[in-house]
Amino acid sequence: MKRYNRIFILTGAGISAESGLATFRSANGLWNNHKVEDVASIEGFERNPALVHDFYNNLKAEVQNVSPNAAHLAITTLQEKYPAEINVITQNVDTLHEKAGNKNVYHIHGQINQAVCLNCAQVLETWGDVDTETVCPHCQVMGMMKPNIVFFGENLLCMDTVERLLRQCDLFVSIGTSGVVYPAAGFVQSAKYYGADTIEFTLEPTANNYLFDKHIYGKAGETFPQFVEELLAAL
Questions:
Q1: How far apart are alpha carbons 150 and 53 in whole angstroms?
Q2: Are 117 and 220 in the same domain?
Q3: For position 29, which CATH number holds?
C-alpha cells in the first residue's frame, strides 16, 4: 500500500447513521418526520422561525444522546498514528467527530451546537435551547439568531480551505456519502483531477462511483477500521 502525506476524509450521513442518528433525508423526503423545506430552508425559517428553532433544539438533544462509532474512532487512530496531515470534512451537523477526538474537522454544513446572529454575524456556541427570544450576546439584539446550519440555497462553509485541501491531498477518502448532493459530491472529481488516489466506503454503489479507484462496501464501522489497520501495517 502506498505511503500518503495528505489525506482528505469526506464524511456524510451514513457514518452518523451507524451511531443511531437519522439520515438527512429519507426516501419519502422527510427529515425526522418534517418536510425538509420547512426546517432546512431560508423560506421555511422566515415563515416559521419558532418551528425551525424547536426542530434543531430537539436535534441537539438527540445528538447529545448518541456516541461515536468505530469508524469515527478509527479516524482518531489514523490521525494519532499515521505520519500525514489528515483533515476531516463533514457534511454532518452533529459533533460525533469531535466526541471521538478527531482533529482538523471542518463542518461545511454547519454545526447543531451553534447559532449565528443575522444582525451582526456573531456565532454563538451552545447546547442550550435557542429560540425567537434569544438575545445575541454580542450585539444584544433579540430574535435574530438562526441555527448555524447551511440551509438550501446558502453557501457551504470553509470552502476556501476545502478547495486548498483538495488540491493538496494525495488520498481522498469518502465515508457514508451518497454522491448525489452537490457541491460536496464533486469533491472527488477535484481530488482526482489533482492526482489523488480515491477510495469510497459505502453500503452500496453511489452515483459517482466511477470516480473512485477503489470501492469498499459494508458498514463503515467495520470496513474503515480494517483499512486503517492496513495503512498502519504498511508503515
A1: 14
A2: no
A3: 3.30.1600.10
pLDDT in tens, 70-85: 999 999 999 999 999 9
Query: For the whole prediction, is pTM greater than 0.90?
Result: yes
Q: Residues near 108 by Cβ (< 8 Å), separated by ≥ 6?
A: 89, 90, 91, 150, 156, 157, 158, 159, 162, 184
What does the radius of gyration of the chain's CA atoms come to, in whole angstroms?
18
| Integer angstrom CA distances of residue 202 from 4, 65, 234 | 22, 25, 23
Q: Is the dihedral of CA 175, 181, 187, 189 positive or negative?
A: positive
Q: Are residues 117 and 193 in the same domain?
A: no
Q: Which of 53, 72, 97, 109 is an active site residue?
A: 109
Q: Confirm whether 109 is a catalytic residue.
A: yes
Would you say 66 and 96 are in contact if contact means Cβ atoms under 8 Å apart? yes
Grid coordinates 446550519 are at which residue? 149
pLDDT of 43-64, one tens digit each?
A: 999 999 999 999 999 999 989 9
- DSSP single-letter state for residue 138: T
What proportion of the chain, given as a percentage, has pLDDT over 90?
80
Q: What percent of the chain is helix, strand and coil (3-state, nearest 5)?
A: 35, 25, 40
Q: Residue 101 maps to which CATH number?
A: 3.40.50.1220
